From TrEMBL:
InterPro entries: Cyt_c3_hydrogenase_gsu, Dihydroorotate_DH_ele_sf, Dihydroorotate_DH_Fe-S-bd, FAD-bd_FR_type, FNR_nucleotide-bd, OxRdtase_FAD/NAD-bd, PyrK_electron_transfer, Riboflavin_synthase-like_b-brl. Binds 1 [2Fe-2S] cluster per subunit. FAD binds at residues 73-74. This is Dihydroorotate dehydrogenase electron transfer subunit. Residues 1-98 form the FAD-binding FR-type domain. The keyword Transit peptide does not apply. PANTHER family: DIHYDROOROTATE DEHYDROGENASE B (NAD(+)), ELECTRON TRANSFER SUBUNIT (PTHR43513), DIHYDROOROTATE DEHYDROGENASE B (NAD(+)), ELECTRON TRANSFER SUBUNIT-RELATED (PTHR43513:SF3).
Length: 258
């Protein structure tokens, strides 16, 4: 983890209400991993809290994040231009890890949860993994990163809530309908809590005992585990800090009902 200044290299719309930003990484930053995130400033003095955003792609010199324009802070970030400097703490949290013996990998992403899934494809490119991807969006206008999934997956299924693109439905149901074909050794997922809750219910109802890891989406303050804004409840009764202990957890450890 390192606090540093980064320079915006690109910042442009990717889909309806979604922006893609690529920024430089200074020397000395280590530990980048799929599923980890950054805490980045929005580029103006009116919003002091940084925004936690998942890594999408990265290399030794730059990182890419994709974010949704939801409030004043992210809208300010959308106005950042190439050459602007932002403050950033990175990398944060834990990430996704695929064991050597886990050859067949199911990726399930919903909304902005698709971008951590892209980071998995990016990290394990050329690692002889068979990916089966199930990606959900609200509508055709929100669909993005389709080529990233299609080019690196044995099977890539795009669904939309309204059926305006791909199949009508949600990513979890698309995965469950295709489970026999995917026959995964491990399941990785990220999306809104209701989506993850549906995934847990679907695994239980179908007696699927495959290891499953989920990345939780929570509001955060500091991003380093000090402020306790982002705690989640675990099934053993304890609480965990999503930013520090997560955001990736085994699905059987966290209480997805709040």
């Amino acid at each position: 983890m390192k606090e540093c200044k980064v320079k915006v290299l690109e910042n442009a719309p990717l889909a309806a209400g979604i922006y893609r930003m690529r920024f430089s990484i200074p020397d000395g930053v280590e530990g980048l991993q799929c599923g980890k995130f950054v805490n980045i400033s929005v580029g103006d003095g009116a919003h002091l809290l940084r925004r936690p955003i998942a890594l999408c792609e990265y290399d030794e010199k730059s990182a890419t994040i994709c974010y949704q324009l939801k409030g004043e802070g992210t809208r300010a970030m959308g106005r950042a231009q190439a050459g602007d400097e932002l403050t950033c703490v990175l990398p944060l949290g834990n990430g996704f890890h695929i064991e050597e013996g886990q050859r067949r990998v199911a990726l399930i992403g919903g909304g902005v949860g698709v971008f951590p899934m892209v980071s998995v494809l990016h990290a394990y490119k050329g690692a002889h993994k068979d990916f089966y991807s199930y990606i959900g969006f609200r509508s055709k206008n929100a669909v993005c990163m389709e080529n990233a999934f299609a080019s690196q997956s044995i099977r890539s299924v795009i669904v939309t809530d309204d059926g305006s693109y791909g199949y009508q439905g949600n990513a979890v149901q698309a995965f469950l309908d295709d489970y026999a074909n995917a026959a995964p050794d491990v399941i990785l997922a990220c999306g809104p809590t209701p989506m993850l809750r549906a995934l847990k219910a679907g695994l239980d109802e179908n007696n699927i005992a495959v290891p499953c890891y989920v990345s939780l989406e929570e509001r955060m303050g500091c991003g380093i585990g000090a402020c306790l804004v982002c705690t989640c409840k675990k099934l053993d009764g304890s609480r965990a800090r999503v930013c520090k202990d997560g955001p990736v957890f085994p699905i059987g450890e966290v209480d997805l009902h709040g």
